[in-house]
Amino acid sequence: MSSKKLNVITISIVAVAGLGFTFGLLLPGNRRLREMRDSISAEQLAVSTQQFQVGDISGLYKELLSLSDEVSTFRRRLPSDRRLGEFLNEVSDAMSRTGIADFNVQPLPAARVSGENLPERLRLAEGTGVLPVQIVFRSSFEKAFELLDAIEVLPRLAYVERFQVEAVDESGRELNVTMVVQAFHHNHDRLIGNLPSVLANGGDAVRKSNG
Asked: Which domains does the chain have, with CATH numbers?
């Protein structure tokens, strides 16, 4: 690639695509959580009204524990509040692990997703908080793309909305990089309803029956 072609490379991605990415990952899991919640609610009622076999109770208890773990992971990936400081620390740690020491991280104005122009499949995204963060640093091509990989596996769900690269000199070995990374937060009540209380009550019912 010539230095002229390498001089400015810009990749811009529409924000709606980011929402499609985000909720494409989360909504299937959310549907499963709801289905499991309904199933556990029914089984919880059965536990309180009839004597279960020990094997059945043990299986239900394991299912409750598994679902509780999934809810915790869901909340970690998509918290109900901003937690901006926590996210900035995650980004800084990812950059340090990649070997990028000289960088600047700056939060950009936050926004909320309006449901006005959302397709039906993304309707649950309405009201989602979007926290864009701009990252500016200098590195090699290799380290820049290592950072992209690191951001994909952050504990908090994140999406690279913009990735701009500019060569520092004619050799093209060193780059000035500007990235905009979006994190999200959402009101969990709309997504998982009363699932936490179902888990707590179901666990108590199973323990009493098992005793």
From this structure: 3-26+79-190 (3.30.70.60), 31-77+194-210 (no CATH)
